[in-house]
Amino acid sequence: MRLYANLFRSFFDASISSIVLHLDDLLHKPENADVEAILMVGCYSESPLLQQTIRKKFNDLKVVIPNEAGLAVLKGAVIYGHDSTVIRERVAKYTYGTDIEGEEISPGLFTDHRFDTLIANGQTLVVGEPQQEKTYQPVKIDQKALDFDIYVTRDKKPYIRY
User: Fold this and answer.
1) How many distinct helices (H) and strands (E) make up the chain?
2) What's the distance, CA 156 to chain centroid?
3) Can you tell me the distance from the alpha carbon of 15 to that of 11, in angstroms, rounded to the nearest whole number?
4) What pTM value is reported for the model?
């Protein structure tokens, strides 16, 4: 059996295009305006096809590919396992929140439930520090406990009423 180079390259077109589109989306976000380099790690980063495409598409950025790029993720995981303080902050991928009673409009009468955001999508989270403090109060005078359902969404500011 014989595979021609163009046919073989076409096997990777969809995944490479997906990576390029994702990088392009990330680099057009305002918080990434000062990015000067792309660091490629993981086994796929060792692909000459992917490397050439990234260098061509993002020719204004420095593209860094470490030796043994395929092992970089594993080595990073091992380093993190030994010293979790190497990561100082993360960016939340989702918005997390809970449902709460709405505003009290008269004694014991509340508006609809609403989503109360605890962490917002895109928020920078500093490892080891509380992200915020919130105080919740029982709705009924004889209430002895509070139950919380935690919800997750990609929306930055979800508007949920039920």
Assistant:
1) 4, 9
2) 12
3) 9
4) 0.62
